[in-house]
């Protein structure tokens, strides 16, 4: 199950530690549950992370995943947006983590894909694939959107789609693919989108059960990253 941990690392914010771990990640992928073709498709990403300038790698990551809502690594963003339904889904996911003996650490939200993959690395393969299949339509959409941009990150999602056995023809996947992509270069348009959607993870005295409200009140969203 180290494969899921390796894929989680590849989707994390680039760092010196990640660069140094690339040889180990490459070896895990070569021996893991991804197909040989999928492992080969990941080589351009591995090579760029291993030898690229860290500042450039961080800037690329921020441009893709932090400045584009349609490429967000927070999975529930693609289903619930900032609605209160997302808060309930967060609570359910947290309970799933706790039941599996997984303690959420760090600033990321529970639905952050690298966090989910870290959890899946602790579960039996059949169970991990079943959980991943629940997000299959999102993975399909992200894979296609990244492929359109000719991003080396597309290979990670294409590999995850294969692991989840998700169907690109499924109605849910097609609905996501029909949405217009954000342009992370259009800052004015992105600012307008974010201003229209207010974060609603805080407690609401008129919504949800008290226990859920208390859990949400203690959840802090991840701080905005800045390329450096």
SSE arrangement:
Blueprint: H1 2-10, H2 16-31, H3 36-41, H4 43-51, H5 54-66, H6 77-80, H7 84-99, H8 113-120, H9 125-134, H10 136-148, H11 154-164, H12 171-177, H13 187-196, H14 210-218
Helix pairs in contact: 1-2, 1-8, 2-4, 9-11, 10-11, 10-12
Q: Give the SSE order as H and E letters.
A: HHHHHHHHHHHHHH
Task: Return Rg in Å.
Answer: 17 Å
DSSP helix count?
14
Structural class label: mainly alpha
Mean pLDDT: 80
Strand content: under 5%
What's the count of strands?
0
Q: Kindly state the percentage of residues in helix.
A: 55-70%
Largest sheet: none
Shape: globular
Distance between the termini: 33 Å
- Poorly predicted ranges: 196-224
Give a short overview.
This protein is mostly helical and 228 residues long. It contains 14 helices and no strands. Mean pLDDT is 80; it is low at 196-224.
Question: What do these coordinates show?
Answer:
Helix 1 packs antiparallel against helix 2. The chain is an all-alpha fold and 228 residues long. The relative contact order is 0.15. It starts with a helix and ends in a 10-residue tail after the last helix. It has 14 helices and no strands.
